[in-house]
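Morning!

This is the sequence you dropped in the shared folder:
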Amino acid sequence: MKREKIVSVLARTEPARGLTVCGWIRTRRDGKDVSFLEINDGSSLKNLQIVVDPGAVGQDLLRRLTTGASVRAVGDLVPSLGAGQRLELRTREVELLGAADPESYPLQKKRHGFEFLRTIAHLRPRTNTFGAVMRVRGELSFAVHEFFQSRGFVPMHTPIITASDCEGAGEMFTVTSLPPDRLAGPDPFAEDFFGKRAYLTVSGQLNAEAAATALAEVYTFGPTFRAENSNTARHLAEFWMIEPEMAFCDIHDDMDLAEAFMKHLVARVLERCADDLAFLDQWVDKTLLATLRNTLESDFVRLDYTEAVEILKRSGRAFEFPVEWGHDLQSEHERHLTEQHFGRPVILTAYPKEIKSFYMRVNDDGRTVAAMDVLVPRIGEIIGGSQREERYDVLTARMAELGLPLEPYSWYLDLLRFGSVPHAGFGMGFERMVMFATGMTNIRDVIPFPRYPGHAEF
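The structure's back. Tokens below.
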């Protein structure tokens, strides 16, 4: 079915004859001798006005051209006589592709709350807000590959099913083909599909490190899963992660890459999603465009964790979570640093080793690790990374300190036994980046079909 996208039709500057467009009816209004349909095909925030002659299409068809119905229209693009649009399509032919019962169609011409729209996630992309969010998400996804490919990084598809816990936190979904009554005994997974206990991955990092020891620079972009019973606006059970890994690099190279990556993503959405961002700036977050431009134009602050703790203590603010050295910073602390104190993104480094993962390189002080977190306004942490530990004896001692068994990680330890090199990487939660780029405040509203505790619909 040949057609022109509405975004292309709206970009035309001159009238044109014989155009075919398809889309869903957003609104309809009737005049004395004419009907006006606003249709949208998802390619643009803006609708195209279709002018329909009731006498030409017939009253029976006209009655079925209601909000939510899909149509194919053929006609001529002409200057509009009405306000609100420059050009309109005067139809020669209208075909109803799919009717929508006006009594039960849930997206009528009014503003709907985000909580209600989560109950109809299969239809919410038809709204202005979620259409804009999904287009921004799509441009961000493209920009991720564009950034790493332009720098010679090799894309890697790391396993979704794993037998090891990258983060050491134990919050993982078990994968099994056995019924519950067979999961018993001292080794309940011995007869399972993989012959051992397996999980949905929480990160592709360890596999990416293995690839980086051969290919030098790689990146992953795929789904990850956390069985964390957290019902917050910042957490999902299934989300997407971007994880670059670089051999022959240290923590400073890691910070440089993270800052360049953030700025590339912001620049691309500002360039390619101007209409959508203007809409979101008006209706979702009136500071959105200013925040994105400030991120693009500012040098990120680089700050030791210890100094950050002192800044927070001297702030005079009564935080909900007390600030103490050795405690992980909370979102309220991160946002104070980026929004009130510095007014721009911050990269925190040198965290206490007790609050970071086993694979992070221990600094010479023996108390901190070469970790870094990128903090941005409104979101807090958006990137977490580190220089990885490349010293076999130090890593095994650290694992013993944390009570981690060596056997499940034997393959990972081989990377340190056979040609180890300094290497570094980070992970970005893609949905948090989409939140930052759109001004949305709930992570469930920036992924098409959210999964969180008690919810796996659609």
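Headline: The first helix runs from residue 6 to 11.

More detail when I'm at my desk.
O.
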